[in-house]
Design brief:
74% of the residues lie in helices and 0% in strands. It has 188 residues and is mainly alpha-helical. Helix 5 (114-133) crosses helix 8 (163-183), helix 6 (136-147) packs across helix 7 (152-159) and helix 6 (136-147) crosses helix 8.
Length: 188
């Protein structure tokens, strides 16, 4: 059985990765934050008494289901209503990512030059863009395997597909990313 401390440490360790994964899927930072928060609450309320070793798999499955629920609700809502905010263009501050800013401030030790930081930021932005452009199942498999560092069996269980499908999706995603980034002059 996981203690409250183990549960809290687990949630803290996955919050940033879960947010990025959700943001890649829904392409809306506010919705991604809501999805991650809902997933964390569902894990704590329904599965907080499970062994700590089971938490990563349970959380990945809950996060996937919560994301799918968000898409279903959005589809239903869009069929009935139209938000005025859907027609607004993004402002200058639309690309601001608080989690990345906080992470860079806490991890920065002041040794990176401005040019290196700019180049790194541009490369990361190009990679994020290409990950967003992947087909949904490839993106999901890629993020679970290489971002969440789940093994093939865990990824297959979380995605509800076979291990062979996970391998195929990951392989296609890696090749697509490699081609796209190479075409942009980024060495992979």
């Amino acid at each position: 059985m996981a203690t409250e401390q183990e549960l809290a440490e687990f949630l803290k360790s996955v919050e940033k990765r879960a947010f990025k994964r959700s943001a890649y899927h829904v392409r809306d930072n506010e919705a991604a934050l809501d999805i991650v928060q809902d997933s964390m609450m569902k894990l704590a309320q329904s599965y907080g008494d499970r062994p700590a070793a089971e938490l990563p798999m349970l959380f990945q499955r809950i996060l996937t289901n919560t994301t799918l629920d968000w898409f279903r609700r959005r589809k239903s809502r869009n069929a009935l209503f139209s938000n005025l905010s859907d027609f607004e263009s993004a402002g200058d501050d639309g690309d601001f990512d608080l989690l990345e800013t906080l992470e860079s401030l806490t991890d920065s030790n002041g040794t990176e030059s401005a040019q290196d930081a700019t180049e790194r930021a541009q490369i990361l932005q190009a990679i994020e863009l290409e990950v967003k452009l992947l087909p949904a199942r490839q993106r999901e498999a890629f993020l679970m395997r290489y971002w969440e560092e789940l093994d093939v069996a865990e990824t297959a269980a979380a995605m509800g597909c076979s291990e062979g499908s996970v391998k195929t999706h990951c392989s296609r995603a890696v090749h697509a990313l490699s081609r796209a980034l190479s075409a942009k002059g980024i060495k992979v």
